[in-house]
Amino acid sequence: MKALVTGGTTGIGYGIATAMLDAGYEVTVTGLTDEQVSEVPARQHLSAVKLDVTNAASVAAVLAPFGQLTALINCAGIIFRNGAEYNIDTFQKVIDVNLTGTMRMCVEARPKLAAARGAIVNTASMLSLFGGPAVPAYTASKGGVAQLTKALAVAWAAEGIRVNAIAPGWIATTLTRGLVEDEDKSAAILSRTPMQRWGEPGDIGGAAVFLCSEAARFITGAILPVDGGYAAV
Fold this sequence. Notes:
- This protein is α/β, with parallel strands linked by helices and 233 residues long.
- α4 (88-116) runs parallel beside α5.
- The termini are far apart.
- It has helices at 11-22, 34-38, 56-63, 88-116, 136-156, 177-181, 183-192, 201-212, and strands spanning 2-6, 26-31, 46-50, 71-74, 119-123, 162-168, 223-226.
């Protein structure tokens, strides 16, 4: 079994990659820079390559070596905080990476996934469900990812490709370190989270393994919250 995890060199993506390795997959992770690729720990059946999901040639080059692909997990994404996404150029950049980049990967991988009757797991967000006033582009992109997931699930079901998404809650990663370490902001997040803790990348990994597995063979078009109950409040 072969899995490709975009944005898999760090954070949630790397947590998913590790879980996929433990489940018996050969895993390729991607990073945007040479530095990100070089920093991936050496592990059997794990490889890392450079990828820019906004570049069609880069996407094609990364997928070319795969004859079949069992699982595609789209985790590459960006966010700009503190109102920066109200700048239209920044807004467009976020959409191009988070939403259009996901579509580029899915379309290019489609024949290889069909050959393996494989699965796609996209990365949505809590902000697929809620408004994020400080991050309008991220919110719009993740809402789009959720709807794209449903559209592709319906379109490609006859080819044996299942398409689902995970909507992570508050996960402790490099990107959220400032919030984790801010006592007041962290307390506000935990007060809304019934399980009363920050999530870890491995929490997302287990959900991704499940959605790619035979145990989820009749699940497609689903958006699975992995958020400690945050969205249920």
